[in-house]
Structures are given as C-alpha cells and as structure tokens.
Amino acid sequence: WAFLDYVNLAFHEAGHLFLSFAGETIHILGGTLGQLAVPLLLGAYFLLRQGQPFAAAVCAWWVGENLANVSYYMADARDLALPLVGGGEHDWNTLFFKFGMLTEPWVQRISGSTRLLGVVIMLIGLTWAGFLSATEAWRRERQERLIMRWPWLEPLLER
After folding, report:
1. How far apart are CA 71 and CA 150, in angstroms?
2. Are 102 and 93 in contact (CB under 8 A)?
3. For residues 144 and 39, which has the higher predicted lDDT (pLDDT)?
4. pTM for the complete prediction?
5. Where does 45-79 have alpha helices with state H?
6. Most CB within 10 Å of its CB: which of 43, 60, 104, 147?
7. The predicted structure's pLDDT at residue 6
C-alpha cells in the first residue's frame, strides 16, 4: 500500500455513502465511481476553471492509477483474498455475481481490460505532464504543429 491508496480508499468509501440512495447496484458500484469521480472532477476543475493543464495531467494519471487499482479489486472477485475495510462484502464479487459474470473468463477479461485502460491513461497523463514540463523552445515548436493538426488540443497544451 502506498499513501495514495489510502486517499483512494477514502473516496471509494465516500462514493458508497453518497450513492446509497440510488439503489443497491449503484450503491455497490458507488465506491468505484467515487474513487474515479474525484480525480476526474479535480482534473476538469484545474483545466477548465483554473487554466492549469499540468495539474489536470496529474489528475489524468491519478484516474489511470485508480483504474489499475480497481482492476486488482475486480480480479479478486473470485478469490476474495484482499482484506476489506470493515470486513464488508466484496463489491465486485457482488456485481459480477448479480450480472452472471463471476466466471473466471469474465473476471479476467473485465479486470484485464480495466487494467489496460488504467495503464494507457496513466501513460497519457505522464506524457501530457512531461510535455508541459519540457523547455519552452522545444515545447512551443511541437505545440504549434500539434495545434495546427488538432486544434482541440490547444487548451490542454497551454501553460
């Protein structure tokens, strides 16, 4: 466990609490939604309200890290080996069972895809942050070419 795992856990548990009114399935899924929503919302805030794309890039990495973290939780749905806070029910065991997907192939496919998505998003966040951290001359030259080709990138690349 790293420090960030404890932060993610707090948002996971808060997600259950905040979505407890929305029915059983959403309440169970609320933990995962909570830990993904916080960095997504913070990233949007930093980018759209504060004009700080570097902070948004770090939040993008954080979303990917959370997805990788969730993939381990998903992969444990059959073994139930991970220690749970308060010894409660395993969210992904319950969800996979509820939707008839608690078989080994389904669990592996979904957890593996989630992990891959997380790694890809982490790499995008790191690349984005690295680009923004580059020297001004190097970054400006590449930024102009990128924006000329894909104008929608401009707010993501301006420091």
Report:
1. 32
2. yes
3. 39
4. 0.90
5. 53-75
6. 60
7. 87
